[in-house]
Design a protein that fits this description.
Elements: H1 3-31, H2 39-68, H3 72-100, H4 112-134, H5 140-167, H6 171-181, H7 183-210, H8 214-243, H9 252-290
Helix pairs in contact: 1-9, 2-3, 2-9, 3-4, 4-7, 5-7, 5-8, 7-8, 8-9
């Protein structure tokens, strides 16, 4: 290892240490919202924090796309990721407006937010597809095993929730729920876990095969981990929503951490990948001019 590589390695490790501490600190601060005595205050702070975290991730994503442009598969990958995150931010912004201006505690009907969230899944899926195309799956059997464990666990958990839900409801209660929410609203709500499974599978493939090379793969690992957090939050939210829970805001805490992790991914991508590439291109242009 030469002097330059040694210096870069120290820089990577130092930044990674601060990044991990920041993520843990953010997770602890987010969890403290639960301790607030008043539920209305808890819900209000949660929605505001969610939008601040989403705005941070969106801004860092836009900066990354602006700096790197559409160069190669990485540029396209992060363009799709930024578009997906931006749509989700707009959806959360609509929730913020509905809560504070319209006084709607929870959206029980299909709304603009649902359209934005569902549209975001398209671009996020494209992002994951582009990433998978660029990585090398080193251990196929290990990847398949971990995937099967997650998928089977995901299906079992949802079957248990849906079965227990049906067991404790009679026909009158079931009809009342369908009348309150509507069949279309229930169907749209149940689509989310299915779409999340479409994000979970490629995210796990990326996490299993890229975790060891943190210097170059950390932004993709963090982005995949972020989407995994979102999938877990969606699954819990949907199950509680169908049961008629009044504390659905709790799952927003996972969404907040989802955006915080995504912000960390964009930060690393901007600080190292893009800056190093732009610096390298600048040096090449300088050398060409001298020649």
């Amino acid at each position: 290892m030469n002097a330059i590589e040694s210096t870069n390695n120290k820089r990577f490790k130092k930044t990674l240490k601060y990044l991990i501490v920041s993520l843990l600190f953010s997770a602890v601060c987010t969890s403290l919202i639960i301790l607030l005595p008043n539920e209305h205050i808890r819900h209000s702070i949660t929605i505001i924090t969610l939008n601040v975290a989403a705005a941070s991730a969106t801004i860092l994503g836009i900066i990354a796309v602006y700096r790197y442009r559409m160069i190669g598969s990485h540029g396209k990958s992060y363009l799709f990721l930024t578009l997906g995150i931006t749509l989700w931010f707009c959806a959360d912004l609509n929730l913020l407006y509905s809560y504070f201006i319209d006084g709607i505690e929870e959206q029980k009907q299909v709304s603009l937010s649902d359209i934005l969230w569902l549209s975001g899944y398209v671009f996020l899926s494209l992002h994951l597809i582009f990433v998978i195309r660029t990585i090398r799956i080193s251990n196929i059997s290990k990847t398949i095993t971990i995937l099967l464990i997650f998928i089977i666990g995901f299906i079992i958990i949802n079957l248990i929730h849906s079965t227990s839900f049906d067991l404790f409801l009679d026909n009158v209660e079931r009809d009342a729920i369908e009348k309150e929410f509507g069949i279309i609203n229930l169907i749209i709500t149940l689509i989310y876990p299915i779409l999340d499974l479409g994000l979970i599978i490629p995210s796990i493939i990326i996490l299993v095969n890229l975790y060891h090379d943190y210097q170059h793969s950390l932004p993709w690992v963090l982005a995949s981990l972020s989407l995994l957090f979102n999938a877990i939050g969606d699954n819990g939210y949907v199950n509680d929503f169908i049961r008629g829970s009044t504390s659905l805001w709790v799952w927003d805490l996972l969404y907040i951490n989802d955006f915080i992790i995504m912000s960390a991914a964009f930060y690393w991508y901007n600080k190292f990948h893009i800056s190093d590439i732009l610096k390298e291109n600048k040096n090449k242009d300088k050398n060409n001019k001298e020649i």
